Amino acid sequence: MISTDTDILSIAEAWAKSGRSVALATVIETWGSAPRPVGSHLVIDGDGNFQGSVSGGCVEGAVVEEAVDVIADGAARTLEFGVADETAWKVGLSCGGRIRVYVEKVN
C-alpha cells in the first residue's frame, strides 16, 4: 500500500506522463471520526484504477465513480459524505463524522 501523499502525487504524475487520464481526489475538510486527515489523496485513472486513500475505505468507491466522471467531463467537483447525509449508510460513515473531498482532472 502507498503510505505517503508524496508517493500518490508521484503516481499521478507518472500515470499522466504515460498517457493515462488521471484525476486527483483531495480531502479538504473533515469533522468527527473521519479516518484520514485533510490533505490526504487518492489518484484515479479513467478505468477506475486507484492508489491512495481519502477515508480508509469508507468512501473510496463513491469517490472513484465520481472521479471517472470528472475525467470524462473535465468538471471538478466537491463531494461531501457524512452521517447527516443520505449516503452515510451507503458509503460506510455510519460511525459518525463528515468528509469533504475535492476531485479534479490532472491532465
Give a structural overview.
- The protein is of the alpha+beta class.
- It has one domain.
- The protein has three helices and five strands.
- A five-stranded antiparallel sheet has the order 3-2-1-5-4.
- A hairpin with a 4-residue loop joins strand 2 and strand 3.
- The protein is globular.
Task: Produce a short descriptive summary.
The protein is an alpha+beta fold and 107 residues long.
- The backbone outline, from C-alpha atoms, is globular
Number of domains: 1
* Helical/strand content category: alpha+beta
Low-confidence stretches: none
- Termini Cα gap: 24 Å
Q: What is the typical, i.e. mean, pLDDT?
A: 85
| Major sheet size, sense and barrel closure | 5 strands, antiparallel
Rg from alpha-carbon coordinates:
13 Å
Order of strands across the main sheet: 3-2-1-5-4
- What is the helix tally? 3
Order of helices and strands: HEEEHEHE
Number of strand segments? 5
Estimate what percentage of residues fall within beta strands.
Answer: 25-35%
- The helix fraction, in percent, is 25-40%
Protein name: XdhC/CoxI family protein
Pfam families: XdhC_CoxI (PF02625)
